[in-house]
Specification:
The protein has 10 helices and no strands. It is mostly helical. The longest helix is centred in the middle third of the chain and has 30 residues. The relative contact order is 0.14.
Length: 246
């Protein structure tokens, strides 16, 4: 379905504004219901936006990356997170605090990955990539910048200007990397699984309060996983090219 670019931008802009309003409204509230709402409303909002854009259920799911197959991409993502887990297991002890609160662990790993990947890489990146003049690089940049900016509000009071800049840049770079993976593998589930696995290991080993502001060991673990994913993605691409040339 060919969509008018103005319509795509309008719906995505409205979705971003809605997220900002809900986040501002929920700030300061606590409790299990609010925690669940904060985690999963971006998924619901993305689905509604997809329906508004495409007007049919299956195209709407495809437009936010929630189409099948699920298991293949998820398996690659879980595999990709293992190098981070190995590095952190050799350099850190398991966090008793994280193990004592499994619900919180689930929120910060799978919940956060579903929320962020569906909204930023699913709704925003995929629709801009496929239905705007930005194409791949422009869509990746816009979604990455929004992803980086979204991680700043909770850091204003505790981080210096230099730290904030570092958080924004590194988080945006991570967003660009996830978008690249989605495009290469044609699977949002891979990005969700990889993101969830990396968050899980980060929390299990209590590396730091924020992934982009951690120490050298934490950053090394992330780099190892990124390099691993780049290598297997490139090997897959070359294998497919050889198969196509036969």
């Amino acid at each position: 379905m060919q969509l008018k670019e103005a319509r795509v931008w309008s719906v995505l802009a409205a979705a971003v504004v809605m997220v900002l309003l809900v986040e501002y409204t929920l700030r300061g509230f606590t409790g299990p219901a609010v925690r669940l709402a904060r985690l999963f409303y971006p998924v619901l909002l993305s689905g509604v936006a997809g329906l508004i854009l495409h007007q049919k259920f299956r195209p709407a799911l495809e437009s936010i990356g929630w189409h099948r197959p699920v298991t293949a991409g998820a398996a690659v993502g879980m595999l990709g997170a293992l190098p981070m887990g190995l590095v952190l297991a050799m350099t850190h002890n398991l966090s008793a605090t994280a193990l004592a609160d499994p619900l919180r662990l689930l929120e910060t790993s799978l919940g956060a990955a579903l929320r962020e990947e569906t909204f930023f890489r699913g709704l925003i990146f995929i629709n801009l990539w496929r239905h705007s003049r930005l194409k791949f690089k422009g869509a990746m940049l816009v979604s990455a910048l929004l992803f980086g900016a979204a991680h700043l509000p909770g850091q204003w009071q505790t981080a210096s200007a230099t730290s904030l800049l570092g958080i924004a840049v590194l988080t945006a770079a991570g967003g660009a990397f996830y978008a690249w993976l989605v495009a290469q593998w044609q699977s949002l589930w891979l990005a969700i699984s990889l993101h969830a696995g990396m968050n899980l290991f980060w929390s299990l080993f209590a590396v730091g309060s924020h992934a982009a502001a951690s120490g050298s060991t934490g950053q090394t673990s992330r780099i190892v996983t990124i390099v691993f994913m780049v290598v297997i993605t490139e090997l897959r691409r070359r294998k497919r090219e050889r198969a196509d040339s036969l």
